[in-house]
């Protein structure tokens, strides 16, 4: 218990980036965070996998034009319709929270902030850490599918992953820590099946896959089977936010090629090893604390504040 209290105190004490601040809605909408939390919890109780969906939704939002809710906009040319965003989930959670907030304090809470808060609550409900989310984001006025082309991809090399994260002000440690969100993630067979049967046109499987795990994946994803079948990215505890994902990467049990490649690079391997060690409890605490810091940093990417954005009435539509 004292570790959890210590974690919360440390994270609350972290400096807030930009013009965001903790407790932004304390006066204009004091129930804001509680309303978001209860909405996420209601959906989570029906489907715990929605937690990973909300976390990914926030991540994809922040990596395109910053954390401004632009991924929530509907429309044929909107960011939401870009190919890398086709599998995003959780939009209904954000819409439900927004409806309740508009009834309670209309025109006050941005969709971008709802998304940041919902991601935090999703992690907390999955037995992960909680942290004070700096708020005060405004909603963006642009949403273009063409701008989503540089989102991180499961096919990316380590060099490309590093470059994409560095472009957003995130370092190698942030990269590995944030990828650890895959501890509660899922993916479709189509995104990794090429590793199982004809990797780099050799006719063989990716040699970095643990042989026993390879057989498990081949059973889940037959060569000519349904490419949309969902598979857990953490084979050991897919609904619990913990450090087991890093043990899987260390042991050759990473599902996505981009995840497994974290073990190929000296700098990222060292970080994976630190999280995947054998000291139970302490390593989970380290990952929890680092993940909280990395999420605060990521959720501050290119935010809009003041007159740079709006407070949308409906999250899926511009005012």
From TrEMBL:
Keywords: Calcium, Disulfide bond, Heme, Hydrogen peroxide, Iron, Metal-binding, Oxidoreductase, Peroxidase, Secreted, Signal. Residues 143-155 have a biased composition (Low complexity). The keyword Hydrolase does not apply. It catalyses: 2 a phenolic donor + H2O2 = 2 a phenolic radical donor + 2 H2O. Its main location: secreted. Binds 1 heme b (iron(II)-protoporphyrin IX) group per subunit. Binds 2 calcium ions per subunit. It is found in: Secreted. The keyword Transferase does not apply. It is an enzyme of class 1 (oxidoreductase). It holds the Pfam family peroxidase. Residues 129-155 are annotated as: Disordered. Its cofactor is heme b; Ca(2+). Residues 1-18 form the signal peptide. Residues 19-319 form the Plant heme peroxidase family profile domain. InterPro entries: Haem_peroxidase, Haem_peroxidase_sf, Peroxidase_pln, Peroxidases_AS, Peroxidases_heam-ligand_BS, Secretory_peroxidase. Removal of H(2)O(2), oxidation of toxic reductants, biosynthesis and degradation of lignin, suberization, auxin catabolism, response to environmental stresses such as wounding, pathogen attack and oxidative stress. These functions might be dependent on each isozyme/isoform in each plant tissue. This is Peroxidase. It comes from Hevea brasiliensis (Para rubber tree).
